[in-house]
Amino acid sequence: MDDHGRIVEVNARAGVLLGRPPGDLLGLDAHDALHRGEHGEPVPRSRCVLREPLVTRGTTQGDREWLARGDGSVLPVSWLVTACRLGDDGPGILLLFHETGPPVSAGRGPTCLAASMTELDRLALLAETTTTLTSSLDVAETLRQLVRLVVPLLADWVVIDLLTEEGGVSRAAVVHYENGGLVHHEHLEGPMPPVARGSTMPLSRALRGVTATIASPETYEVEPDSAVAVAQRRLFRATGMHSASIAPIRGVREVVGALTLGRAERPGAFTTSDLLLVEDIARRAGLALDNARLYERQRRVAETMQRHLLPQLPHVPGLEMTARYLPAPDASQVGGDWYDAFPLPGGATGLVIGDVVGHDLEAASGMAQICNMLRAYAGELDEPPSKIVERLDQAVTRMVEAAMATVVFARVERADGRWLLRWTNAGHPPPLLVEPDGRTGYLADAGGLLLGTDIMAAREDAAVVLPPDSTLLLYTDGLIESPSRSLDEGMADLSRYAASLARHPLDGMCDALIGRTRPADNDDDVALLALRIPG
């Protein structure tokens, strides 16, 4: 394994013992893919003795561990793990093992698995639950990790019901442990009946945050007192669960949903000891889900505000104009990127591309203020772009919530039968001019400090005649910037791709540029404003 615990080499004998083609294991996390408890249950990462040499760079060994095989059984092994070097790839670890007995079927654990766990095992599981679930602010990822933590360790079925923001109930996950893997039963997922306030059935009580309960098929074979009870009866019949532990998932302020763990193939009903552990896990899941929901709610508000602030582009006779805006790829950040275009006194058209520093609601709010101030100054003052931006910079430093931003402000107008562009740049990536024959050039003149530095320096203007059929691209750094390459490389890529698309329709050109130029590891939003000069 490499120093992250990922499998990089497997010999043929190991493949035979594990019942898997060696190539299928490459790239997998060795702990997640192989390490199991005696009954096939996952082992908490914090209790993984195989990972010790990753930290100590030493050697450790033992004669009582179990590895998962391809057919779902577990193989008892004696083992030795030692630190090593992987040639030029740096440090790694080597796992040597041999079988100490025949493979045994997984999932045939004791009737009360939680009771058989030592107190240290229980604490390790709860610690891993807290660490794992709070590592993400994405609801779907939090649910996926929750399922992985409890199945098949505590049950072979897991059902997660969530209360929606509209007050309804959604069955977000129904997952079964089958043949050594997790299988989603999507036909059992989806909208649920609303919570019945007067219902005494376990799921209804859990969704109201009342209590955790152990249930069985007989619990729901009585006369149902709500539509939720009818849905639960169908669930027990469809899954074959003979025992279930149902616990409320509580957030900081309110109930988030309910967690149901069920046993069908595994013998033995849930016990009070099991129920206390499940309730503790559900409580930790509630805090993680509550945080994820609050974060997603804030992001949606900011992104919606940002999208609504982006303008409808004006119609300028003779000019073709289009724009694009894309939020951050992982939807975890909201930025302050914006574009704008509007008529100016004297018949010219103002063009703006800008980026407020930051990735949060404050950045989006600062963008709105700066965008509106720039429009106001440019619409009232018939002055060169540099003077408009100087006034804007003074205003930005007086904002209650000080912001820093980059911006290119330009004016394009027809003069003496030609199209003239005049612009100034406050710390922003330079516009790119693409001529119809594929020649390109960055308009790098008239550069100055970004806005909000409180350093007042005279700004410059630059001007260029835009050739017929040429394309002007104004963009934010999310289109070219990447942690894995230099800014110069990103600008070179943009120039090369734009040259190859010089004669494409403007809309198609913009879509292709974003698809080909935007880095895969980009963590920023992107704004793009494009202008096509008539022939």
UniProtKB/TrEMBL annotation:
SUPFAM superfamilies to which the protein is assigned, alphabetical: GAF domain-like (SSF55781), PP2C-like (SSF81606), PYP-like sensor domain (PAS domain) (SSF55785)
Top-rank taxon: Bacteria
GO molecular function, one term: ATP binding
Residue stretches making up the PAS domain: 1-27
Record's keyword terms, sorted: ATP-binding, DNA-binding, Hydrolase, Kinase, Magnesium, Manganese, Metal-binding, Nucleotide-binding, Phosphoprotein, Protein phosphatase, Transferase
InterPro entries (UniProt xref): Bact_Sigma-Reg, GAF, GAF-like_dom_sf, PAS, PAS-like_dom_sf, PPM-type-like_dom_sf, PPM-type_phosphatase-like_dom
PROSITE patterns named among the record's database cross-references: PAS
EC number in record: 3.1.3.16
Gene3D superfamilies: 3.30.450.40, PAS domain, PPM-type phosphatase domain
Top class in the EC scheme: hydrolase
Catalytic activity as recorded in UniProt: O-phospho-L-seryl-[protein] + H2O = L-seryl-[protein] + phosphate
Task performed by this protein: Primarily acts as an independent SigF regulator that is sensitive to the osmosensory signal, mediating the cross talk of PknD with the SigF regulon. Possesses both phosphatase and kinase activities. The kinase domain functions as a classic anti-sigma factor-like kinase to phosphorylate the anti-anti-sigma factor domain at the canonical regulatory site, and the phosphatase domain antagonizes this activity.
The name this protein goes by in its record: protein-serine/threonine phosphatase
